[in-house]
């Protein structure tokens, strides 16, 4: 494949630290509007069949930038899973509480991603998806999140039409209320790794990590971002644990058989 | 002492999630609960500036802690669970509907 669409070391590390990566796709003229128009007219939710009802969605899923990011994160033979869902946030509906999908079995690997596609511009009033960077490694039962609303460092998906957000499957997410008279469309896809890496599948520089550990200095290189990134400012103990898990993930992605802690 | 119509002394709640169990550590989560019919605390896209940076700031402003973070759970120094440590605070104040 065209390697120009593979992620860089900094982008890979950014994903490990924050749990998401945004792509603004250069889709054919009028495609976003056609997709949004067809969704506006749907009178039922077809569930997994949404991509059969709106086949233009495949042009987003198969865009070279999306494929490049997926190969980088999940390996060359990643799988597009059969489950997908049209999340239509109806006009004048309330927020959705924080949650992680599924039950608690979070892992120290990068094996499953969500792909969230937005065919229209999303404003803060339209009920954007909201994520909490760095929460993808937490074994937090969704019911335990019921007393949280706004969290320091949360990021609303206030995005341009044609944005494809890749998120770690376990990232905390919810939505704000839709206070407009517009339907807010988001189509969710699932992607899965099918085999372990034996070598990096992104644009990896083998010397990327050969820099000094910046205990108190500049931290704008992959090694130090991976070690010291703390997007929501968690306490020291949690930060140490996050760091260990990220390095395990990193070594696993490198194809290091005996992934060790740092 | 007379009260305004439709008002009474009620319990206002504040869920604060702090970085550590110390009341002096920074707040990571802020959820006010007002005792007003149909009130709902919610996640918002635009987060307003919080009035307090620490639990202690809230104490200075007259809030009282009614529940401290539970620390009795087994300490697992590898796994991560919820974000921060939950303090629940209250203020008993006269509140008017609508």
Question: Topology of this protein?
Answer:
The complex is a heterodimer of chains A (262) and B (98).
Chain A: H1 9-18, E1 20-24, H2 31-41, H3 50-53, H4 57-61, H5 64-74, E2 79-89, E3 96-99, E4 112-118, E5 129-131, E6 150-151, E7 155-156, E8 163-168, E9 173-175, E10 184-192, H6 222-228, H7 236-254
Antiparallel strand pairs in A: 1-8, 2-10, 3-9, 4-8, 4-10, 5-7, 5-9
Chain B: E1 7-18, E2 27-33, H1 55-60, E3 64-67, E4 85-96
Antiparallel strand pairs in B: 1-2, 1-4, 3-4
Tell me about this structure.
The complex is a heterodimer of chains A (262) and B (98). Chain A is of the alpha+beta class and 262 residues long. Chain A has a single domain, classed as Sandwich (Jelly Rolls). Chain A is 26% helix and 20% strand. Chain A is built from seven helices and ten strands. Chain A has helices spanning 9-18, 31-41, 50-53, 57-61, 64-74, 222-228, 236-254; strands at residues 20-24, 79-89, 96-99, 112-118, 129-131, 150-151, 155-156, 163-168, 173-175, 184-192. By secondary structure, chain B is mainly beta. Chain B has one domain (9-72, 92-96). Chain B has one helix spanning 55-60, and strands spanning 7-18, 27-33, 64-67, 85-96. Chain A binds chain B through residues 94-98, 106, 124-125, 128, 130, 132, 135, 137-140, 144-145, 147-154, 156, 158, 172, 174-177, 232-235, 237-238, 241-242, 244-245, and chain B through 15, 17, 19-20, 25-31, 40-47, 77-84, 86. Strand 6 of chain A pairs antiparallel with strand 2 of chain B, so a sheet runs across the interface.
